[in-house]
Each structure stands twice: as structure tokens, then as C-alpha cells.
Write a structure and sequence with these properties.
The chain is mainly alpha-helical. It has 5 helices and 2 strands; from the N terminus they run αβααβαα. A two-stranded antiparallel sheet has the order 1-2. Helix 1 (about 5-15) crosses helix 2.
Length: about 110
């Protein structure tokens, strides 16, 4: 799969749910290519903005779209990595702001 194919597939499944790609196309494709790289590395698309453990069970919370996307987009108008944004964020009704990490400390600092 190419980044262009992934873009189309995700766009078609996520936009009807109210999740849109960030208008910064370069940023989006950098993330999509990183998702594909993680798929090749781990056999799953772990969020490229977080450290994956190469353990699907451990990383279930960061499989894209991660479980943090919904609360991030609801509260801040975009997800942590900035791949997905809301319609209000796109329309400029929500200012672009820092999205704090929601992943628990034990997930962030696992002994590998």
C-alpha cells in the first residue's frame, strides 16, 4: 500500500465519522508514510508520534486511529499527532493549540 492509497482509504472511512485530515498535506503524508513504516516493522500501524513496543497487545491504545483521538479532537479540535482534525478546527473556530499526551506513564516508560 502507498501513502496515497492509505490517504484515500482513511479519508473515505474517517470523514463520515467527522474526522478530517490536517490541511498541512506535507505533515499528513509524513505521518502516513510513518504509519506504513510501522506497519512494515511491527505488522500494525502504531502512531508514529509515540514509541511502539513491538507488542501489539501492549500497543493497542496507539493503533491508528488511537484511542486518544476521540477525546483529543473533542477537546482540542485535533489529535495528538495532528493527523486528524475536526470540522470546527478546519473552519478556524478552534485555535491550534498544544494537545497533551494522554498515554499513561507506564505505557510511556516501559522497560524494553
Amino acid at each position: 500500500m502507498t501513502a496515497d492509497q492509505l490517504f484515500e482509504a482513511l479519508k473515505n472511512t474517517q470523514e463520515p465519522k467527522g474526522y478530517f485530515f490536517n490541511p498541512d498535506r506535507e505533515h499528513v503524508f509524513r505521518l502516513l508514510n510513518s504509519l506504513l513504516l510501522n506497519k512494515a516493522r511491527y505488522s500494525y500501524m502504531a502512531c508514529p508520534c509515540r514509541l511502539a513496543a513491538n507488542d501489539r497487545g501492549w500497543d493497542m491504545d496507539i493503533l491508528c486511529p488511537c484511542i486518544y483521538r476521540d477525546p483529543d479532537v473533542k477537546e482540542f479540535g485535533r489529535c495528538y499527532c495532528g493527523l486528524y482534525v475536526s470540522a470546527d478546527w478546519l473552519a478556524g473556530k478552534i485555535a491550534n493549540q498544544y494537545v497533551p499526551e494522554r498515554r499513561s506513564v507506564d505505557k510511556l516508560f516501559r522497560d524494553f
